[in-house]
């Protein structure tokens, strides 16, 4: 007759097997937990990487919208802010006219780049568009806007401080228009810079330039000069520290087309002196250095 294990041995075997199954379950559970933890870590790393990449591609400021500019450069309002690696707009040594020690007179144009040590702080100057200017210029603009409103004129800041990256995007778009018209790369570049300042060579990068329109005429064209807002600005802007930066008869000197909407903050005393002289900023600064 065959022999069978005793009842005691069977119970012992069952316990051993049950213990083995329990160990296997615990091991499987640990492996699953480890796998989930690794997956979560990889997902988090990928998400963080995508977020950082999006930030780089976005270029930071100027709120990237039609009216979007979010500025905030570090530094005080007493001197230069924002560094740029843009190449000069023209070759050869550039003589920078004297600013008489006044940072508000700092020259920025197609041949003179924003100083590498330029530093400002900015704040919103126009609530409806969220456009920003350097602190002092923003305060002056808001006072000017209120004064215009008392006279029944509504001013609208449609562009203020811009990062160099944002300016590059605007310049590339303008250049592409000329390339599409059949111009060579150099010809398109030269044409574009008469309409949009070269990145790093734009007053908008300084936080002191303001494109001002009115709700009834928001197109940046010479016809703006015929609006009540433009006429009010021609007469009153110097009293708040702003000058018409690109007058109609100064294109050969400024290198920029007539822009009746583009104003530059230089401070009240400077603005009145420049306006009374009938000179553009380049001419005025040349006179200071003579």
In short:
The chain is α+β, with helices and mostly antiparallel strands and 290 residues long. 43% of the residues lie in helices and 9% in strands. The protein has eight helices and six strands, in the order αββαβααβαβαβαα.
Tell me what the structure shows.
This protein has 290 residues and is an alpha+beta fold. Helix content is 43%, strand content 9%. The protein is built from eight helices and six strands. The strands form two sheets. The chain has a four-stranded antiparallel β-sheet. It has a two-stranded antiparallel sheet with strand order 1-2. The termini are far apart.
* Radius of gyration from the alpha-carbon trace, in angstroms: 32 Å
Distance between the first and last residues' Cα: 128 Å
Number of strands: 6
Indicate the multimeric state. single chain
What's the mean pLDDT score? 79
Structural class, judged by helices and strands? Answer: alpha+beta
DSSP helix count?
Answer: 8
Beta-strand portion reads 5-15%
- Principal-axis shape equals elongated
* Biggest sheet architecture: 4 strands, antiparallel
Helix content: 40-55%
Low-confidence stretches: 1-9, 48-95
Order of helices and strands: HEEHEHHEHEHEHH
Spatial arrangement of strands, main beta sheet: 3-4-6-5
């Amino acid at each position: 007759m065959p022999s069978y294990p005793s009842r005691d041995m069977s119970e012992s075997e069952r316990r051993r097997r049950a213990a083995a199954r329990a160990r296997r379950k615990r091991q499987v559970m640990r492996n699953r937990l480890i796998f989930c933890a690794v997956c979560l870590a990889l997902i988090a790393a990928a998400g963080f990487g995508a977020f950082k990449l999006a930030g780089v591609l976005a270029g930071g400021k100027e709120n990237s919208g039609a009216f979007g500019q979010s500025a905030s450069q570090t530094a005080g309002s007493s001197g230069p802010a924002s560094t740029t690696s843009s190449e000069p707009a023209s070759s050869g040594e550039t003589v920078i006219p004297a600013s008489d020690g006044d940072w508000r007179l700092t020259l920025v144009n197609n041949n003179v780049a924003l100083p590498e040590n330029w530093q400002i702080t900015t704040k919103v100057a126009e609530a409806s568009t969220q456009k920003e200017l350097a602190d002092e210029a923003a305060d002056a603009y808001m006072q000017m806007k209120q004064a215009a409103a008392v006279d029944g004129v509504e001013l609208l800041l449609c562009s203020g401080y811009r990062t160099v990256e944002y300016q590059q995007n605007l310049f590339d778009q303008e250049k592409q228009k000329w390339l599409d018209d059949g111009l060579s790369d150099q010809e398109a570049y030269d044409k574009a810079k008469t309409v949009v300042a070269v990145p790093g060579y734009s007053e908008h990068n300084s936080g002191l330039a303001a494109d001002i329109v009115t709700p009834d005429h928001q197109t940046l064209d010479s016809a703006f000069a015929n609006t009540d807002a433009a006429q009010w600005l021609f007469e009153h802007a110097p009293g708040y520290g702003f000058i018409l930066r690109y007058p109609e008869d100064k294109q050969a000197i400024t290198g920029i087309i007539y822009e009746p909407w583009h104003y530059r903050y230089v401070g009240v005393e400077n603005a009145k002196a420049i306006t009374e002289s009938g000179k553009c900023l380049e001419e005025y600064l040349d006179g200071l250095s003579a």
